[in-house]
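User: tokens in, sequence out, please.
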């Protein structure tokens, strides 16, 4: 036993094993198709950015920036951060690529890992994965409506049920400061009932008061003023227009007057989508408008809207796993000499589109058949002494238990085999 180390994955980091991973691939594939239909285009963003990018965009007072970022000093002294989200990177890429300079319309989608040092629990990890979209250059409410319709259709099409879209508005630079002050005044009058964190929020970021989970604070702030009642004219009109578009498309939603997003760059429309069966971490997606972010990073005044879906939670809500499809054919060489013809015929069947299980030789027929049956192969191609001598294989129908000697020599039989499988699979078993 000496010298054996046992390694476990780092806390909050996990392996995504094949059954779950297969479902992820399928979900990503569906998302890519849906996004393409809505004129979103794939982009691959780096996982590492300058720490400053996130500090400047997500908000200095947010949990993500204050305590959840994986930041380290590179060998040249630069402070780098493993991205906690991708919107900031998308804005940087929009500007770096030159698209931003002319305030062009650009619609991107991305998928990949994000890193936040949160307390791990079901549905919450330190490395998690998002599929997201970001649309630059369009300020009109129709864009908010279109993208929300797309998200809800995508969730429905991958089988996520009992979803709830919570929509609110966070106002803008014209109305939010006055509302923030109103909220702060309300909270200050109840200071003694608020927790220590809320005292801090009151000075740093009063909007976050509405996000406190402490029951005493929730009670004290139950009647606090809400942003939705204090929107300026243009923000109010924008919000009403978005709601009308959703109504028109038959997209159900709940008004979320107290919605506070975990990141600070939003203005106007902000939303979260929750799904049933996810436990405490039930937000499957979130996003909204961030019209000031491009300018905040030194670009022109370009409006933007986007969202990200948490892939771990999407997969949980969509059923969790996807089993491997059963192989169509198991190729079973009974003798060492059958190895080369077995590999050759398996390769030709695979080229013909079949899923083939190839067993190594050297075990008894019984043991080989047991493997094929365990994997639920439709049929087995037996390559024993007789078959090699005759140059023809035997197909055993594992559903009906019937043997069928191939008409053609092995090296010419792959089309016959593919046809045999297709007929029997389409026929749905015996018959
Ligand atoms: P977010 O709300 O922070 O928004 O994250 C979006 C989604 O990522 C969440 O709804 C959740 O499903 C998933 N998620 C977040 N943290 C974790 C975690 N620790 N473990 C597992 N899943 C998690 C954003 O990230 C914005 N960048 C979205 C956006 C795009 N806004 C505009 N454009």
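Assistant: Sequence out:
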């Amino acid at each position: 036993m000496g010298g054996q180390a046992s390694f476990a994955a780092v806390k909050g980091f996990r392996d995504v094993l094949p059954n779950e991973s297969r479902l992820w691939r399928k979900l990503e594939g569906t998302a890519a198709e849906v996004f393409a239909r809505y004129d979103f285009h794939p982009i691959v963003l780096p996982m590492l950015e300058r720490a400053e990018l996130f500090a400047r965009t997500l908000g200095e007072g947010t949990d993500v920036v204050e305590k959840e970022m994986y930041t380290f000093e590179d060998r040249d002294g630069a402070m780098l951060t493993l991205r906690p989200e991708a919107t900031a990177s998308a804005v940087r890429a929009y500007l770096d690529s030159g698209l931003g300079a002319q305030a062009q319309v650009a619609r991107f989608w991305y998928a990949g890992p994000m890193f936040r040092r949160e307390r791990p629990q079901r549905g919450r990890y330190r490395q998690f994965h998002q599929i997201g979209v970001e649309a630059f250059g369009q300020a009109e409410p129709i864009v908010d409506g279109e993208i929300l319709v797309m998200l809800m259709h995508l969730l429905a099409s991958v089988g996520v049920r009992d979803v709830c879209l919570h929509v609110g508005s966070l106002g803008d630079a014209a109305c939010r400061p006055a509302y923030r002050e109103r909220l702060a005044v309300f909270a200050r009058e109840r200071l003694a009932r608020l927790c220590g964190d809320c005292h801090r929020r009151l000075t740093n970021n009063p909007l976050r008061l509405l996000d406190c989970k402490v029951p005493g604070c929730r009670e004290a702030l139950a009647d606090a003023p809400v942003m939705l009642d204090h929107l300026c004219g243009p923000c109010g009109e924008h919000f009403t227009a978005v709601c009308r578009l959703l109504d028109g498309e038959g997209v159900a939603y709940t008004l979320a007057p107290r919605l506070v997003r975990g990141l600070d760059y939003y203005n106007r429309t902000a939303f979260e989508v929750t799904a049933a069966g996810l436990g405490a971490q039930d937000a499957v997606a979130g996003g909204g408008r961030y019209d000031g972010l491009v300018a905040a990073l030194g670009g022109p005044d370009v409006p933007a809207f986007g969202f990200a879906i948490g892939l771990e939670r999407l997969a949980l809500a969509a059923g969790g796993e996807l089993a491997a499809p059963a192989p169509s054919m198991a190729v079973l060489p009974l003798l060492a000499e059958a190895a080369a013809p077995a590999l050759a015929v398996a390769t030709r069947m695979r080229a013909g589109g079949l899923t083939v299980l190839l067993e190594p030789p050297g075990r008894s027929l019984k043991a080989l058949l047991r493997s094929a049956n365990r994997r639920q192969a439709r049929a087995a191609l037996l390559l024993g002494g007789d078959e090699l001598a005759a140059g023809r294989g035997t197909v055993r129908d594992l559903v009906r238990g019937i043997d069928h000697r191939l008409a053609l020599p092995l090296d010419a039989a792959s089309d016959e085999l593919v046809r045999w499988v297709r007929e029997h699979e389409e026929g749905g078993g015996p018959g």
